[in-house]
Amino acid sequence: MRLVFLGLSLSSSWGNGHATTYRALLRALDRRGHEVLFLERDQPWYAAHRDLPKPDFCDLRLYGRVADLDRYAGSIASADAVIVGSYVPEGVAVIDRLSSPVRLFAFYDIDTPITMAGLAEGGTAYLSPAQVPLFDLYLSFTGGPRLRTLERKYGARRARPLYCAVDVELHRPTPSPRRWDLGYIGTYSEDRQPILERLLIEPARQLPERRFAVAGPLYPDGIRWPANVDRIEHLGPADHPGFYCSLGWTLNVTRADMRLAGYSPSVRLFEASACACPILSDPWPGLNTFFLPGRDILVAPDTDDVLAALAMDPASRLAIGAAGRARTLARHTADIRAQELECFLAEARHRDMRRSVAMVAGADA
Length: 365
Hints:
By secondary structure, the protein is of the alpha/beta class. The protein contains 13 helices and 13 strands.
């Protein structure tokens, strides 16, 4: 297929999780023989931190304003599907500009709980309630009950889960010396910080002989980090596997809106598990549909749960990492997500064709 994506960013992973998702999915689509054009708004903060300016798995083009999309009108009109992502700058205007000539129109919501909260208040900067029914397919990072709400309340024609995934060619176990007992990757978020305090910073205070690490930008200067917590301002995607392979455990902390919605796995879960790094996660609804707690992953509601995990014998810890990797390879790779996307697009095409045939037959009668 010829596919056109419009997303927040592909060229820069700085301060956003969208780039990692798009890179894994588009690499898999390329491996499966599809041609992809990715259109990205040229933003100064991403321009200063571009870690993938020229991908070899798709055609990346930058545009300066919504009107510049007219340069790609031919590619958009001839594409088998056009997929617009959440948080696209001036997304409402972008969707309005694209909706008419598109064969199959899809929305890829990487921020479903945030989007739905915005829709309940009248809309977001990247999607309005009136635009939801325009899409033939609504792809969502969040599964579970939210999908039915999108269809019943907001008129989505068909809402389907397309979760994040991992590129297993980039994320695999490698022999690395142990540098830290527990580490975390994540951009600063005010709602995540209390959990990070409870599940990493407090354990670090209680275990001064152990080593900890927090990687990610935008943390305020006022945070009091214990001396045994190493801060890494930014860790590019290429450095994630080496980081995970140097950890005894990694911590997953879920955004409050994602935790409330449930069924919203972070790509960090799949990246770490693909590297066979054992995971400690805060609890959230639906976690057990992705990993089996106690075998593939450990759930850590509080500080004592983290301390118990850090005291676990090495064989048990490594067994959890191995089980998590097996689960991810079986269910959460980018190639599996690419196949799921193909199926969802085929389903939308087939149902719309049947509807068109039925309408024509009714008119002839």
